[in-house]
Amino acid sequence: MTPTTLPEQRRILATALPGPRSVERQARRAAELAHGLGTTMPVFIDRAGGGILVDIDGNHIIDLASGIAVTSVGAAHPAVTRRIAEQAERFTHTCFLVTEYDGFVEVAAALNRLTPGDHPKKTALFSTGSEAVENAIKIARTATGRSAVVVLGHAYHGRTLLTMSMTAKNVPYKQGFGPFAPEVYRVPSPYPYRWPTGPENAAAEAFAALEEIVTTQIGAANVAAIVAEPIQGEGGFIVPPPGYLRAVQEFAAEHGIVFVADEIQTGLARTGALFACEHEGVVPDLITTAKALAGGMPLAAVTGRAEIMDAVPAGGLGGTYAGNPVACAAALGALEAIESEGLVARAREIEQRVRPRLEELVTPGSVVGEVRGRGAMLALEFVRPGTSEPAPEIARAVVEHCHQEGVLTLLCGTFGNVIRLLPPLVIPMDLLDEAIDVLVAAVGSAR
Ligand code: PLZ
Hints:
The chain has 13 helices and 15 strands. It has 447 residues and is an alpha/beta fold. The chain has 2 domains: 165 residues, CATH 3.90.1150.10; 261 residues, CATH 3.40.640.10. Strands 4-10-9-8-7-5-6 form a 7-stranded mixed sheet, with helices on both faces. The chain has a 4-stranded mixed sheet with strand order 1-2-3-13. It has a 4-stranded antiparallel sheet with strand order 11-12-15-14, covered by helices on one side. A hairpin with a 4-residue loop joins strand 2 and strand 3. Helix 12 packs across helix 13. The radius of gyration is 21 Å and the shape is globular. The site of ligand PLZ has 16 residues, from helix 5.
């Protein structure tokens, strides 16, 4: 029973949030679920689609999260749901390692065509973003015969052992989970807002630090891969200064290092380009995708230079569910929707609509220190008024205020002081405006 119409695209506060039914569910949740599973907004969802989440109390919540940049085409786009239903009726699974099906090859061909660069490319599919990053490292290690992996400060690459080791932030991602994977080295992230000698020096000095660390501490000839998010997501929507990624890519090329762009959060139209690397004219050797790729189904990919991708011998890559046929069908629907609905351009329209209103919040003595991001990946960094000291408690209060008003926003940032906006790219503009009204009012009352 696939709903054929979207939930009403209007904010409706039927009860206080969270409503009584959601509140009642919390006791059961606490009894049944491991404590380590967090939740941003404690409401149980009944339906979702477009820019709206409908909870079990009948509240219509405006979605500025997209399930963390996943439902860019909405949580129930007909191009996705119809293909899922059709595929599920034919078969749900064979395991591509056992017998083949077209969807897997079609998704790979689409990614080979759509990712930056016109060199010969190949793709391998997996299920989660973490798996894609892990496999990019396996591939880079095999292709280079080297083991070291270089990552950035503020990086997020996943929760599995290797990707957790590559992730920068300790609490909550790493605390108590060591020992970590070896041969992971960290270089400073060129975080313009917090660069000690000023934003204008971030690109050159961060690159110089990378060069020095790689040369003197690791040895360039030992480095298999440098991995970077073209905009750092969980770390705080940190946009690297112009030229930095290009310099890293050139350094990697010069030393036979595989340059991996982790586009799991930024990819597939989110930033106003199909891939965020395009804003910098950077062509990565390997690129990881997941999240928005399959409109809500678990699917992830590594795509890149054919000669690197082909380094691993047959049987070396895989996974029971890797490239599941229902997820592949969903991806073909999501890619079709991105194109047919012009979602790359829509992400830019969202930025044009939202950014000026957010920038008005940055005034002398404001709690908002900086507005940054690209396309429909925008963020506000909260600080103690008149300083650049992180103010996570203010950010949390603003998020809480938004939640009570039926607007779902998410926090991020190493210091927990960044509110990020990741609306579905199909959100009606009037709904988006209303959500920003609520956010702006919440910031106003936090002063
Ligand atoms: N690389 C750049 O953003 C996932 C994390 C949610 P998985 N980001 C959301 C959480 O707290 O677990 C992410 C990412 C980048 C890799 C990943 C990992 O993708 O699909 O969560 O494994």
